[in-house]
Predict the 3D structure of the following.
Amino acid sequence: MPNLLFALLTCVVYGVLAAYFWRAQSRGDGDTLSRGAIGHLVLLPLALHGYLLVKDIFSEGSFEFGVVNALSMIVWLTLLVYWVARFFYPLGGLQTLVLPLAAVAVLLPELFPSEHALTNTDLFAFKAHIVAAMAAYSLFTIAMLHAVLISQVEKRLHHANLPRVLQNLPPLLTMETLLFRMIGFGFVLLTLTMISGVVFSEEIFGKAWQFNHKVLFSFISWGVFAVLLWGHHFYGWRGRVAVRWTVSGFALLLLAYLGSKFVLEVLLGK
């Protein structure tokens, strides 16, 4: 019950900040406020959210990392990365878009608690594998949001009806540069995740490596991002082509991780 109260409080704070920054972004001063002292207020719900994640994941000495905990952590890490990046780029509008998602994500583990504790959680290889995986998923989440936003901005610019909330974003070229930087870092982390999963499978998961649908979708997703980075480097792929490949790669990665966990935990009850 205390965790639920903390989650409700965090949800309310996220929601209030989302409404405040949305109005500020609509007025055209969202980036100025988010990069100033008021922007530090995001640290309050972030800290509460982080506390809840630790309590939910390391519940009673176990390691509960079900689908809702994974989703909550991805959103939390995404918002944290945006909060840090705002010191270098005018990303107030992007942070505003993530805050409502965080308000929902923080409630999920309390409303749908996980009952699937993982084993071998004291091993360094396991912890390194999880950290690399979650960092990669978070970076690709941000990249996907960037790609969708770039697509919407391009579409609105062609019709000359760009909303005020999107008018203070960085130039499209800057947004695309950020997009490929995040995809590059995410690709490296995803590669490390897959290598560690294959090489140390028995040590991490307690069984030999197996080729299943999760592995298949992961490899396909890895291939999609590899082709995208190759095409961008050698052929200058950008714009709608980059958006389509980014969204496709992210969708496959989501199927590989959250999709497989949803099937196993929710539909099959394993």
In short: Residues 212 and 255 are 12 Å apart (CA to CA). Residues 1-114 form one domain. The chain has a mean pLDDT of 78.
